[in-house]
Amino acid sequence: MNITEIRLRNLGELMKRFDQKEAAQGLPERGALARFAESVGLSPAYLSHIKNKRKSMGHATARQLESALKLPADWMDVDHLSGAVHMDTAAREFGALAMKLYMDDPEAVRAVLMRYMTERYVPASKDAPKKEAK
Q1: If you average pLDDT over residues 119-131, what whole number do you get?
Q2: Average pLDDT for residues 31-58, to the nearest whole number?
Q3: Do 40 and 73 share a domain, yes or no?
Q4: What stretches of the chain show up as alpha helix (H) in DSSP?
């Protein structure tokens, strides 16, 4: 899948979410594209051209959507519907360091992480007191 297809797919998902919010508020389906376009600062005609594959979404438009919708940088460039996870710089740095530590001593790192995850994320028995998050 290329960047044009990914951005188009993500736009479709964002518009679907927008439509669902509007439907929950009782707003009519008619005019939804225009309202979405207005909310992100694009012209309805331009957005329609992108949606109907007459134009492709460029870098500037992708960044404008992210900014208007308060999405992380480059969110439009990741295929979120395939289960991919968007990692910002801090997450990539953490992942790189975690892998370095793991490669140095896999068993010790695995044991520490398993203990940490088990303490925090495995449901406690009904009788055990709940542990407070730190």
Answers
A1: 62
A2: 95
A3: yes
A4: 3-24, 32-40, 44-51, 59-68, 89-104, 106-121
In a domain, 131, yes or no: no
**Which residues constitute the domain of residue 110?**
89-121
Domain membership flag for residue 130: no
Q: What is the DSSP letter of 86?
A: -
How far apart CA 31 and CA 44 sit, in angstroms, is: 10
Confidence of residue 102 (pLDDT cuts 50, 70, 90): confident
Instruction: Characterize 52-66 residue by residue with b for buried, 16 or more Cβ atoms within 10 angstroms of its Cβ, and e for exposed.
Output: eeeeebeeebbbbbb
Within a 13 Å sphere around the CA of 127, how many CA atoms are in the beta-carbon half?
0
**Radius of gyration (Cα) for the chain, nearest Å?**
21
